Amino acid sequence: MSSNLNQDPSIHAKQWLNKQKNLGQSGFQRLVAAGLLDALLAVCQAYFLALTAHQLMFGGLTVLVVSGLLATLLMRTANSAWRASTAASVEARVTLAIRELIAKAMLRGKMSQQSTGAVSNALLEQSLAVGRFHANFAPQQKIVSYAMIIFLIAAFATDWIVGLIFIITAPLIPLFMALVGSGAQKAADKRLATMDFLGGYFLDRLKGALTLRAFGREKAETNAVDKANAEFRKSTMGVLKIAFLTSTVLEFFAALAVALVAVYVGLHLLNLISFGPGPKLDFRTGLFLLLLAPEFYAPLRQLAASYHDRAGGLAAAKILAPVLGDNQEDEHTTQPLASAPRIAIEKLCYEYDSTGAIIFDQLTTAIGAGECLIVRGDSGTGKSTLLKLLAGLLQPHSGSITYQDHVSQFSALAAGSYAWVSQKPWFIHGTVADNLLQANPNASRQELNNTLQLCGLAHIDLNAAVDEQGSGLSGGEGRRLGIARALLSKAPLWFMDEPTAELDEESEADIIALIQQFKGQHTLVIATHSEACASLADNTLWVRPAYTQQGESNE
Q: Which among 68, 155, 204, 296 has the fewest CB atoms less than 10 Å away?
């Protein structure tokens, strides 16, 4: 685990968020270049507009001046279009890259303790927030610092009083934006937390719709969802209120600064005051300064418009950084296990972060290569949790897990090292063949048929339709298909979570006989309540409350 995680979470989140600009490749530099080019063109535009107006009023309008003005306008329009296209590309690229990192983290078990709603929100909303941060706020923040220097040089070269007005008024805008923005960050954090809750809350009710209907709870739960939705709407409006307040503060100070420049220029043109270089001002120079003033504050306006992207990006980073913080450095360099491994567990400790309940305390046991370890115990004592710890899908607080004399660093095993057979195998909507190919995309049709035959499923057509719930398959057939998929993966280590639960005696006996065939070829770790399934054991580990845990040999 990275030492960065020992830092203050907010600092770590900011550092992680800033690093993600590399995902946009060269798009970030192009956005900054486009912003600086726009600043230079804005100065040229103000110059040609002032010169054109001066020549129109006092005669002598030339084709060269008009051509320069039109060329500047066209170039600025084209640059704005290019900048918008680049921003959209950067947003899409960063968002997609973050979603890929989240998907990898999910497969590696780093998000196993988060709710389905929180994970889906991370994939959809939080990744998009990071993309918007790097497409809008991050480049604009750098553009502001350079663009203001360009405008100040133009202002001081023309009239140092106007340049002084710019310097005095410019810092007031970021100052008040920061004061208002602290509230925006809190509101964004609250909105994100509400969205996580609402996503999981709604999904749970959707999954249990039939149960709710059976108990006549439709109206009550509909009202509860409406109430939760109203809270989310309220938090969203809170973010928008602060965003509008930020823009209002900016517009006020920008208008005030422009008014100061207008008063200064106007009084000098009317010869009502005479200090500084003002008496030398003519109509063209005065108009140039007036046109330059709003352009000076335009980058700050754009920064304010994207300020809510900063709040959203930081809020997302606080959630994603602990999960993805080391993803770029944590890619597997080790090879998958080549043969049935021996496993040694030494003084393993684990507790649930949410409740602090100790599940394992100084747990020690061993599994020989090709042996079967049966994990037994009452419901809720941590049998499934132990399987996830062995697979690296959860991280213990201390202790070690050794595979083939290689000490695990508590990250998921390399792809292809293990297969997972759950109590209710997960299927995709498609055919039987589609589901088998999830384990081995390169398997031939003949290999699929041979695997089905070996698992007692020769009567099932590879083109038979299967949905997410395994419709069309009996309970026993679903378990067999899960084992077939594990066999097809060629993984030397199998984790099986209640493989015979809820089956009749005949189906259970068939599944046990099937598993028996693969003992010795694979190292098996099976969590079960079944006495019949426990007969497969070379060793048995009884999982009890932490203060009574021990391993017992099944001799």
A: 204
For residues 289 and 281, what is the distance between their CA atoms, to the nearest angstrom? 10
Q: What is the CATH number of the domain that holds 409?
A: 3.40.50.300
Same domain, 74 and 216: yes
**pLDDT value of position 551:** 42
- Rounded to the nearest 10 degrees, the angle between the axes of helix 218-269 and helix 172-207 is 160
- Whether residue 238 sits in one domain with residue 354: no
Q: Is 146 helix (H, G, I), strand (E, B) or coil?
A: helix
Give CA 309 to chain center in angstroms: 15
Alpha helices in 443-504 (DSSP H): 445-454, 475-489
In terms of Cβ atoms closer than 10 Å to its own Cβ (0-12, 13-18, 19+), residue 298 is: middle
Return the pLDDT at 82: 95
- In angstroms, the CA 291 to CA 47 distance is 8
Residue 405: per-residue pLDDT: 64
If asked whether residues 316 and 372 sit together in one domain, one would say no
Looking at the structure, do residues 383 and 250 belong to the same domain, yes or no?
Answer: no
Structural contact between residues 323 and 119, judged by C-beta atoms closer than 8 angstroms: no
Structural domain containing residue 356: 343-552
What is the mean pLDDT, run by run of 10 residues, along the chain of 555 residues? 51 84 83 94 94 88 92 95 94 91 78 71 86 91 91 92 88 70 64 69 74 81 81 75 72 83 86 71 88 89 80 83 64 67 87 70 87 86 84 80 69 77 83 89 89 85 84 81 87 88 81 86 89 89 63 38
What is the number of structural domains in the chain?
2
Give the whole-angstrom CA distance, residue 101 versus residue 131: 13
The CB-side HSE value for 93 (13 A sphere, CA atoms) comes to 17
| 421 within 8 A of 515, measured Cβ to Cβ | no
34 phi and psi angles, rounded to 5 deg: -65, -40
Which residues, in sequence order, are CB contacts of 382 under 8 Å at separation 6+? 350, 359, 360, 543
Q: Looking at the structure, do residues 81 and 176 belong to the same domain, yes or no?
A: yes
176 belongs to a structural domain: yes
Q: Is 503 helix (H, G, I), strand (E, B) or coil?
A: coil
Q: Are residues 313 and 399 in the same domain?
A: no
Handedness of CA 300, 302, 308, 314 (dihedral sign): negative
Nearest residue to 467 (alpha-carbon basis) of 478, 453, 479: 478
Task: Please indicate, yes or no, whether residues 351 and 320 belong to a single structural domain of this protein.
Answer: no
Residue 1, in any domain of the structure: no
What is the structure's pLDDT at 123? 84
- The answer to whether residue 330 sits within a structural domain is no
pLDDT at 411: 59
Specify whether the CB–CB gap between 69 and 374 falls below 8 A.
no
* Tokens (6 digits) for 107: 């497969």
Kindly report the number of other CB atoms within 10 A of residue 230's CB atom: 10
Question: Could you tell me if 306 and 354 lie in one domain?
Answer: no
Q: Answer whether residue 25 is part of any domain.
A: yes
Domain boundary pick from 324, 352, 373: 324
pLDDT of residue 406: 64
